[in-house]
Design goal:
The chain is 58% helix and 12% strand. The chain is an alpha+beta fold. Among the domains are: 72-164, no CATH class; 184-347, MetI-like (MetI-like fold), CATH 1.10.3720. Strand 5 and strand 6 (137-146) form a beta hairpin. Helix 3 (42-59) packs across helix 15. The longest helix is centred in the last third of the chain and has 31 residues, at 245-275. The radius of gyration is 28 Å and the shape is elongated.
Amino acid sequence: MSLGHMKRSIRKTNPDKERARQEKYYTASQWSLMWRKLIKHRLALISFIILAILYTGAIFAGFLAPYGLGDFSGSYSNAPPSKIRFVHEGEFIGPFVYPYEIAYDEFWTKVFVENTETPYPIRFFVKGSPYKILGLIESNVHLFGVDNSNLQPGKDDVRVMLFGADQLGRDLFSRILIGSQVSLTVPLLGTAISFVLAVIIGGISGYYGGIVDTVIQRIIEVLSSFPTLPLWMALSAAIPPGISVTQVFIAITIIMSLLSWPRLARTVRSRFLSLREEDFVLAARLAGVSDFKIIIKHLVPGFMSYLIVNLTLGIPNMILGETAMSFLGLGMRAPATSWGVLLQETQSVSNIANHPWKLIPVLFVGISVLAFNFLGDGLRDAADPYK
């Protein structure tokens, strides 16, 4: 084929491809257009990847964590993060740790010193404490752990503490992973419940108006007027003592959802007030469609993208709320764990100064909150039809 013939062929096919691309763009659904805009938002895309990693870690926390919640060692009380080494006496032997020995400095402060005589290899897919994935699949295999086969009799097991240990000698890395199951799940479930309440109550208020709207708005104003902290304390005091961890989890989820639905309900109401007089709503009424179907099938899908954006931006507030409740002792309590429970040991300034690694859960809270905020900003830009 000659060069001139190739150029004529390119001129002929390119307009066809361009026309097909434009037709595909203009006939695409709203969700497709949102997705195309979202993937161009780099910060939102990075945030989505970070959140996917965090939630994957929460799902497989039992497998990724080298120890369970009940595993502790008094010898590792307030131990610093373990140093992962690869070379022993000039020879590469793979990842390993040295055991800690307790010593005291000139101020009689306890310090941990590595005993470099014997290395303890880090093995993968080792057996340890039993756990359940998603509460269904039982297993006792952990991603990694220390091989204690050459441990001398009478000595405590050597441990690998990536983020150090807490006051009771429990691995902070394992507790952060397991605690993420509560700190990342409660906001999602609470947001889902508040979403249903907001759509139903806000939709009724905006669709019917009149005395119904007035009563609902006064109720919302009363709920919004209560200070957050005393309301948390009152609702958490209603949780009976001695109930199971699962029941506490459900109670905290309900509390968070009851505190967050009024704001979203007002957003739904305002949208319903502007949409209920549209021609398609009038046509549906004349066709004999019930009010419930008009709300669910015609009005709500019309601004579903806007609701999703508001939900995404509301999840960080719930993460901070659950963390604050558990930090104050109003939410999850030991032996259960969450990021807020882990931060209870940071209430003392001296504790933080001597053991700064106990602030690591703050990083996970901050990263998850920022990731949701950036993702919400990206969704808001993607849902804007004028951008």
